[in-house]
Design brief:
The complex is a heterodimer of chains A (115) and B (114).
Chain A (H helix, E strand, L loop, with lengths): L3 E2 L4 E5 L4 E7 L6 E7 L6 E7 L4 E4 L2 E6 L4 E6 L8 E8 L10 E2 L3 E6 L1
Parallel strand pairs in A: 2-11
Antiparallel strand pairs in A: 1-3, 3-8, 4-5, 4-9, 6-7, 7-8, 9-10, 9-11
Chain B lengths: L4 E3 L2 E4 L5 E6 L6 E7 L5 E8 L2 E5 L6 E5 L5 E5 L8 E8 L9 E2 L3 E5 L1
Parallel strand pairs in B: 2-11
Antiparallel strand pairs in B: 1-3, 3-8, 4-5, 4-9, 5-6, 7-8, 9-10, 9-11
The chains are: A mainly beta (115), B mainly beta (114).
């Protein structure tokens, strides 16, 4: 049962353009969402997060949008840079209850930014 | 300041053997999380330890076990290894359970079962 899904295994974007990575979830109990970036041979690094009480959160070139009714979130990177090329994972959790401490991850999307 | 460190980086075991993976959290962090990333899949939650106690467990069989030591480092043990256990095992740490969503990951241990 894949509660968090990233349906695009890969995305290719030109440098300077916008990258949009998508993520869908099925568990309506999730109330906190995160994006991680992972380079080869390294562990995932935290990028940006959003609470379910918000619909948008910005941090520099990165913006995460949350549409609770559609159970969908997206990560926008503007402008995209070659150094952004990595695997991006979305993750979700419920802060409290039996799911506490557990992040549920999507399968990841490989982003390639071409110079 | 040192990040989360995991050892060994790579581990090759034979089916049926036991594997032990180690994790040292960031100094001051009391919570340790273990995740499995099998080929083509996302990270699957395995175990969460905080203050020496197991706090939560993912949908994995009992042959996946672990413990947390008084210095907050942790061990993941996988008994009776199966070929499907081949994966990248990632450890993360955070400043206790109130910071579970602010976990930092190590570089992982690549376990190969042959």
């Amino acid at each position: 049962d894949q509660q968090v899904k990233q349906n695009s295994p890969s995305l290719s974007v030109q440098e300077g353009r916008i990258s949009i990575l998508n993520c869908d979830y099925t568990n309506s109990m999730f109330d906190y969402f995160l994006w991680y970036k992972k380079y080869p041979a390294e562990g995932p690094t935290f990028l940006i997060s959003i609470s379910s009480i918000k619909d948008k959160n910005e941090d520099g070139r990165f913006t995460v949008f949350l549409n609770k009714s559609a159970k969908h979130l997206s990560l926008h990177i503007v402008p995209s840079q070659p150094g952004d090329s990595a695997v991006y994972f979305c993750a979700a959790t419920r802060r409290g209850g039996t799911s506490y401490g557990k992040l549920t991850f999507g399968q990841g999307t490989i982003l390639t930014v071409h110079p | 300041e040192a990040g989360v460190t995991q050892s060994p980086t790579h581990l090759i075991k034979t089916r049926g053997q036991q594997a032990t993976l180690r994790c040292s959290p960031i100094s001051g962090h009391t919570s340790v999380y273990w995740y499995q990333q099998a080929l083509g899949l996302g990270l699957q939650f395995l175990l969460w330890y905080d203050e020496g106690e197991e706090r939560n467990r993912g949908n994995f069989p009992p042959r996946f076990s672990g413990r947390q030591f008084p210095n907050y480092s942790s061990e993941l043990n996988v008994n009776a290894l199966e070929l499907e256990d081949s994966a990248l095992y990632l450890c993360a740490s955070s400043q206790g359970q109130s910071h579970a969503t602010e976990a930092f990951f190590g570089q992982g241990t690549r376990l190969t079962v042959v």
